[in-house]
Amino acid sequence: MDATTPSDPVVLVEGAHKSFSRPHIAAHTLKERVLHPLRFRGHETLDALSDVSFAVQRGEFFGILGRNGSGKSTLLKVLGGIYRLDRGTIHIDGRLSTFIELGVGFNPDLAARDNVVLNGIMLGLSPREAKRRYDAVIEFAELEDYQDLKLKNYSSGMHVRLAFSVAIQVDADVLLIDEVLAVGDAAFQQKCYDVFNEMRDAGRTILFVTHDMGAVNRFCHRALLLENGRPVAVGEPQAIANRYLELNFKRDKGQVDATASDAEQRPGDHDARILEAWVEDEQGAPVETLSQGEPYTFRVRVEFLQAVSDPAFTMIFYNDQWNEVFVATTAFAGERQGHFEQGERAVFSVSLDCWFAPGRYLPAAIVAHPGSGTDVIDRWDRVLNFLVVGTRATGGLVDLPHVANVTREIAARAT
Known about the structure:
Elements: E1 11-23, H1 30-35, E2 43-56, E3 61-66, H2 72-79, E4 87-92, E5 96-99, H3 112-122, H4 127-132, H5 134-141, H6 156-169, E6 174-177, H7 186-202, E7 205-209, H8 213-219, E8 222-227, E9 230-235, H9 237-249, E10 272-280, E11 289-291, E12 295-304, E13 308-309, E14 312-318, E15 324-329, E16 339-340, E17 345-353, E18 359-361, E19 364-368, E20 376-380, E21 386-389
Parallel strand pairs: 3-7, 3-8, 5-6, 6-7, 11-21
Antiparallel strand pairs: 1-2, 1-4, 8-9, 10-12, 12-17, 13-16, 14-15, 14-19, 18-21, 19-20
Helix pairs in contact: 3-6, 5-6
């Protein structure tokens, strides 16, 4: 069945609410609690999930996104039966397999064979079937040389490989996967992603918690975004990934207030004053969040307080690490801007396709007298504050469209 075809959902969550009680002062020993019984009475309630509702269709690969502390792992634990809801209902149609926390369900004093069989039985396999699948589990986990070693001597990566291998061998109808795959090495992660592709193509239902926006767009049919335990949006993966990045970066937005800048304290002789700056999309609407690859226009409005001839206009695009990413200027354009009388205004515009790397940007706008460009009239640092969202971050300052290929050279034969 196509995952987008409406049908009875295989996972249905309605009005899910889960809270935890957190003491103001924690007692670490029984002696402390006995000697000071009144000290530890105060507590506060933390709402980990509040009115969460969504439905997942059979065969859907469903992403769950959110910042740290947003309730993603709590939601998976509720779905997996580890936590009980305070309010709301959950319906799951079929066998469930969970891969939520490292080491959950494993006995560290037992070797791999005993742990694989026990976990398989807990996940719904018969003892005979769990034993039959042992070799396949160990082979996928690449632990043939360590199967007689007790699990307490395993590394975290070995734990991940074994736990994931068990989870995918039980033929579950619904698979819950937390972001613990990040513990594994790159080769094993790719091996897991290959399994995801196979499961996706086979129509298995998977709920996947991750911070990897590339994985969300690569695998998921839809995604849910959580913030402070509440659902923000459910929908198409690219849109949800962009909303997630916007929320993630907007935490620091309050640290920059361009409108509070005092023009008198800005560098320059103040023959002109930068009044405002903004960004427009292709339709001319003001925006604060930019999508990679889309065209935008940056505009700066300037008022001349004295007569100025041929001023130079510049925008310097800084990222949040205060690195100069790009400079746009009229200083070297070879075109004269003309004479501006006192009281006149002008708008300096820069149009480009946005290939900045995902992140926050804080440009500076500069108006200068003609010449070397160092005779500043007005400079407004952090005149703008905008966010670029995308899922192709490669670690560079920009992510330019390009073609990369490899050509095999044939060595010349010796004569």
